[in-house]
Design goal:
six-stranded parallel sheet; alpha/beta
Length: 192
């Protein structure tokens, strides 16, 4: 790869879309009204936009990997329509307690482990040091810590509650109200 670029690694549920529990059909997938604008801002600032999402609903038999792909396609189409782009979509369908035996695994891709981000970096040519992870849970921030990049906790989804009780020894570079707030912070604090 000749040109490695920084990425914005985005959590999905609670960060890009309303976290409505297990989203098993498209009618329940509702984007935050600011999500596409934020994705466009990240692209305009020169970041790759990569989704990293745990999808334990697959492991528990609530929906299949085909539905995860359908949501990813919808999100990519909406981003493109809004002048943005999703450069990669990575998900973990595993759980150590999975109801579906084929997904029962203690894998390295399930957040807070960094497997999805490391795979994306290898496949897409990402400069991890100049990248950032954005999510509404401390497990997203743990991924950032594991791969050596910055982290932003957003107060959408579980974020407002999570911000009140950070785990010992863990902190985010910024805590923002939502994804647009995170985009503004990132534009004001470019990677070195």
């Amino acid at each position: 790869m000749t040109d490695i670029r920084p990425a914005v690694f985005l959590d999905r549920d609670g960060t890009i879309n309303i976290d409505a529990g297990y989203i098993e059909r498209m009618e329940r997938f509702e984007l935050y009204p600011f999500a596409i604008d934020a994705i466009r801002l990240f692209k305009q600032a020169g970041y790759l936009v990569v989704i990293l999402t745990n999808q334990v609903g697959v492991a528990n038999g609530m929906y299949g990997e085909d539905f995860v792909a359908e949501v990813a396609g919808y999100l990519a189409a909406r981003a493109k329509l809004g002048g943005g782009q999703i450069d990669g979509h990575y998900y973990c369908p595993h759980s150590p307690d999975a109801a579906v035996p084929e997904y029962r695994a203690d894998c390295d891709c399930r957040k807070p482990k960094p497997g999805m981000a490391l795979r994306a970096a290898a496949e897409l040519g990402i400069d991890l040091r100049r990248s950032v992870v954005i999510g509404d849970r401390w497990r997203d921030i743990a991924v950032a810590n594991a791969i050596g990049c910055r982290a932003i906790l957003v107060k959408t989804g579980y974020g407002a509650t999570e911000a009140l009780r950070p785990p010992a020894g863990m902190s985010a570079d910024a805590v923002c109200e939502d994804l647009v707030g995170a985009a503004v912070w990132l534009l004001d604090h470019p990677a070195a």
